Amino acid sequence: MSATTAENRVAVATQRQLIWWRFRKHKLALISGVIVALFYFVSLFADTIAYTEPFDSQASRSYIPPQPIHWFDANGHFHPTVYALKGKRDLRTFKLTYAPDASEPRDVVLFGRGYEYRLFGLFPTNIHLLGVSNGKPQDALFLLGTDQLGRDVFSRLMLATRTSLSIGLVGVVMSLVLGVLLGGISGLYGGLVDVVIQRVIEILRSIPTIPLWLGLAAAVPASWTPQQVYFSITLIISLIGWTELARVVRGRFLALREEDFITAAELCGASRMRIIFKHMVPSFLSHIIAAVSLALPAMIISETTLSFLGLGLRPPAISWGVMLQDAQNLETLALAPWLLFAAVPVIVVILAFNFLGDGLRDAADPYG
Amino acid sequence: MVAYILRRLGLAVITIWAITVVTFIILQLPPGDFVDAYVSQAAAMGTSISAAEAEALRHAYGLDQPLIVQYFKWLWHIVQGDFGQSFEYGRPVTEVIGDRLWLTIVLSLGAIVVTWGLALPIGIYSAVRQYSIGDYIFTFIGFIGLALPNFLLALIIMYLGLRLFNVSVGGLFSSDFALAPWSLAKVWDLTKHLPVPMLILALAGTAQLVRIMRANLLDELRRPYVVTARARGLPERQVVMKYPVRAALNPFASTIGYLLPYTVSGSVIISVVLSLPTVGPLLLHSLLSQDELLSSTIILMLGILTVVGTLISDLLLMWIDPRIRLGALK
Fold first, then answer.
1. What is the pLDDT of residues A112-151, one digit of tens each?
2. Residues of A with CB under 8 A from a CB of B
3. What per-residue confidence (pLDDT) applies to B251?
4. A124 vs A305, which has greater pLDDT?
5. Nearest by CB to A207, which of B170, B266, B303?
6. Are A67 and A100 spatial neighbours (Cβ–Cβ below 8 Å)?
7. Which of A137, A196, B74, B255 could form a disulfide with A141 if both were Cys (CB 3.0 to 4.6 A apart)?
8. Contact criterion met (CB below 8 Å) for B107 and B197
9. Does residue A96 sit in helix, strand or coil?
């Protein structure tokens, strides 16, 4: 393509195309976007990807270390197999040790049968991504081992992904509403309203958040249902998180107010609402999306931290924080280090959101 | 300049007042009050308290009055330095907190010093040697620092410490000194235990500050005055350190406003994980056991200390940075 056609292409491209072209250049952000999408895919199909009922506890399966899949059989053919486990109690230490029982091989199959669940909460089914030939994965398939109560860590991790990611999303929506509303008012009206809102933000930012969160979260009554706890925790997290979004929105409003095209619209007699929603919002929407993807990891960290300390979500709810709570003390870590695996998705998704947000922020203003 | 100081002071006072309101709300939020807890505790001990007695107790403690009256009474007590009795420990709250508050301050301030001490040289290095291997390594560590929640980092380091070196990194004192009165030997013991928690606490803040410092310095290094200085034959060290670094330093001072609350927040969490004798574990414990006077006092003290710390740093900043001093004059 010659230089002039390339220039022509840029000249006639829509803003959306320009943003996409700019974003595409940021390889790390692109990969991160795929990873984030994958995480949301997992949380959508969490029940399908899990293979053992996440609440199915069994003392005889306590602290089973992760068991590998044997990919090839004795003849070297591709034939993924797992073995049933035989637990033996060490009579001296009373610790259960497990040995695979080679006489009971089970084929690992794709889309096998397992426990009953409802896909998307609607369609009853028992098909899971992974299964074993006899339909009882809870005896043989332990990709990431089990916890103290004998519950399968991998299956729980899939459902935890759903909870933790959705809390982040709901929390960010709540703080977005607060942020856009207060930031918009602040930037649009200016004057005394602006001063008051800015001071409130300044005050909120100068208070250490964790002690406050802990105090608020501790006030959630123990008798509440998991759903009520879920929403109160999300609300608490978003109460502090809105300040940064409000700052971004206000800054954009202030900058746009001075633009010529806004003045032109005003002179043409466009109503205030029309100016805001038709002219201003489209031109800073990309900035908001970038700010949101940078705010999401903070929300996820907050939920994980609160739950880890025992003041956020409580069992039977499963989230990354709740799972990490099991790995809280050194004795458990020494005994069952695989419980720490719940930290991996936390780190990966937070990194991915950070890179994605960076890329989006750079692409948000494709004319720069 | 006076106007600037007054403005800052005013904002600090309003912030502290806002913190007292929020703390009071937290104090009131859980269902039931102090007398309910007392009655149920007495019942558990085998003595019963009649409804009339409970009512009398409520009256004696002023719990039957409107909330706003209770708030001002509570505030009045606090201004006088009377924070009440810890329900669980049966001792004055200030006595229960004791040294823990000072250790929290030492840990948080130490972490901030570490943050600055690390972020400055690393930031300069990363900007001057942009895209070098060192720059990539620091960027990588920085991103890990940003992505790892404090408590996870503490947990992982604790695990690795146990696994690889067979040492326990928890606590701030050896067992010999934990209950001993303060002495030089105990201070030395503390100094030996502090670096690990300080580093854990400082990592995230350092990562953020390095990124800001690197970006700022890169902007400055492209300025014509740097080219001029180089063209005039100034040694490279002087070209970098004397002007661009100074100009890029601004965020170091101005970020303390959020770095301090952030660090204090973090200290609470990592103290719980590493079982450090700061106010962190005490706060968590008091919240879980609904010892509300103790927990609210800790929240209040942490809040006020942070505001005071930020105020002091703001005033220092004004003294150091002529742009603020002169800008405020206008």
1. 777 777 777 777 777 777 777 776 767 777 777 777 777 8
2. 199, 202-203, 205-212, 214-216, 218-219, 221, 297, 301, 304-305, 308-311, 324, 327-328, 330, 333-334, 337, 340, 343, 346-347, 350-351, 354
3. 66
4. A305
5. B303
6. yes
7. A137
8. yes
9. strand
CB-count burial class (<10 Å; 0-12, 13-18, 19+) for A83 = middle
Model's pTM, two decimal places?
0.80
Find chain A residues with C-beta within 8 A of B156's C-beta: 340, 343
Q: How close A367 gets to chain B, by Cα (Å)? A: 19
Write the Ramachandran bin of B131: left for phi over 0, alpha for psi from -120 to 50, otherwise beta: left
Residue the block writes with tokens 């010892």: B291
- B285 to chain A nearest CA, in Å? 10
Q: Tell me what ipTM this predicted complex has.
A: 0.77
Region A329-336: mean pLDDT is 76
- How many Å apart are CA B210 and CA B124, to the nearest integer? 8
Calculate the alpha carbon distances from B138 to A28, A308, B221 in Å. 17, 29, 20
Q: Where are the beta strands (DSSP E) in chain A?
A: 70-72, 78-89, 96-119, 123-132
- How much of chain A exceeds pLDDT 70, in percent? 95
Q: What's the CA gap between A179 and A185, in Å, rounded?
A: 10
Using the Cβ of B42 and the Cβ atoms of chain A, whether some distance falls under 8 Å is answered with: no
Token code pair at residue B195: 């670096």
Contacts of B18 in chain A (CB under 8 A): 203, 207
Q: Do A311 and B290 touch (CB under 8 A)?
A: no
* Residues contacting B248, CB < 8 A, separation 6+: B123, B127, B213, B216, B217, B219, B220
Closest CB from B11, B29, B156 relative to A219: B29
Q: Over the stretch B99-149, which tens digit does the pLDDT of each residue have?
A: 888 888 889 989 988 998 998 899 999 888 888 888 888 888 888 887 788
At residue A193 the predicted structure's pLDDT band, cuts being 50, 70 and 90, is confident
**DSSP code string of A195-244:** HHHHHHHHHHHHS-HHHHHHHHHHTS-TTS-HHHHHHHHHHHHHHHHHHH
> Which residues of chain B does A351 touch, with a Cβ-Cβ cutoff of 8 Å?
143-144, 146-147
Q: How far is CA B47 from CA B42, B61, B190, in A?
A: 5, 21, 45
